[in-house]
Write a structure and sequence with these properties.
The complex is a heterodimer of chains A (about 110) and B (about 110).
Chain A: E1 3-6, E2 11-14, E3 19-21, E4 23-26, E5 32-38, E6 44-50, E7 56-59, E8 62-65, E9 75-77, E10 86-94, E11 97-100, E12 104-109
Parallel strand pairs in A: 2-12
Antiparallel strand pairs in A: 1-4, 3-9, 5-6, 5-10, 7-8, 8-9, 10-11, 10-12
Chain B: E1 5-7, E2 10-13, E3 19-24, E4 31-37, E5 44-50, E6 53-56, E7 65-68, E8 75-79, E9 88-95, E10 103-104, E11 108-112
Parallel strand pairs in B: 2-11
Antiparallel strand pairs in B: 1-3, 3-8, 4-5, 4-9, 5-6, 7-8, 9-10, 9-11
Classes of the chains: A mainly beta (about 110), B mainly beta (about 110).
Chain lengths: ~110, ~110
């Protein structure tokens, strides 16, 4: 069945460091891909999405490119801030069903 | 615009007791989802509604879990009786019909003792 695999956390970075969180997927057909973020004590929020191969999703300085050849959707940000500390979830949507990875905790230190 | 509303935010019960969670989706969203999120894991779909019809309940443990969305707006998820392994965060989400982007509520954190 469809699945999403994320890099294990926690990821600890200093402020202004470059961020990469790896995400790979297995799916039949052509799923849409998402990154959701969960701040402490809050619900999941959509961060960005891409609906077809080579699409780049971007929001709040975060980017991810839909790579069909490597079945990947890695999340990147050039300069993280303390306020980016959260749990990040990669997900795919196939036939109306969202399938999530296990989440990666990001901790940014000042 | 109000987001997805869930209540209660926290619930502590003893095993074998019943518990219910309530969700009010974003106005105009026909599709409603219930997810369960275990500690350190991503959410897993329990049930999906299109209006008042449950169109995907394949992951709902039907021996103890039930859900309803009688008027196609708000929804209730019930567990009876609760077991220790039901401790988790229960998330509700909604979307427009046919749309892939889902909007999540803050969740109900359940602890079964």
């Amino acid at each position: 069945g469809d699945s999403v695999t994320q890099m294990e956390g926690p990821v600890t970075l200093s402020e202004e460091a470059f961020l990469t969180i790896n995400c790979t997927y297995t799916a039949t057909g052509y799923p849409s891909l998402f990154w959701y973020v969960q701040y402490p004590g809050e619900g999941l929020q959509l961060l960005l999405k891409a609906t077809k191969a080579d699409d780049k999703g971007s929001n709040k300085g975060f980017e991810a490119t839909y790579r069909k050849e490597t079945t990947s959707f890695h999340l990147e940000k050039g300069s993280v801030q303390v306020s980016d500390s959260a749990v990040y979830f990669c997900a795919l949507s196939n036939t109306g069903k969202l399938i999530f990875g296990q989440g990666t905790t990001l901790q940014v230190k000042p | 615009e109000a987001g997805v509303v869930q209540s209660p935010r926290y619930k502590i019960i003893e095993k074998k007791q019943p518990v219910a969670f309530w969700c009010n989706p974003i106005s105009g969203h026909n599709t409603l989802y219930w997810y369960r999120q275990n500690l350190g894991q991503g959410p897993e779909l329990l049930i999906r509604y299109e209006n008042e019809e449950a169109v995907d309940d394949s992951q709902l443990p039907k021996d103890r879990f039930s859900a309803e969305r009688l008027k196609g707006v708000d929804s209730t998820l019930k567990i009876q009786p609760a077991e220790l392994g039901d401790s988790a965060v229960y998330l509700c989400a909604s979307s427009l019909r046919g749309a892939e982007t889902q909007y999540f509520g803050p969740g109900t954190r359940l602890l079964v003792l």
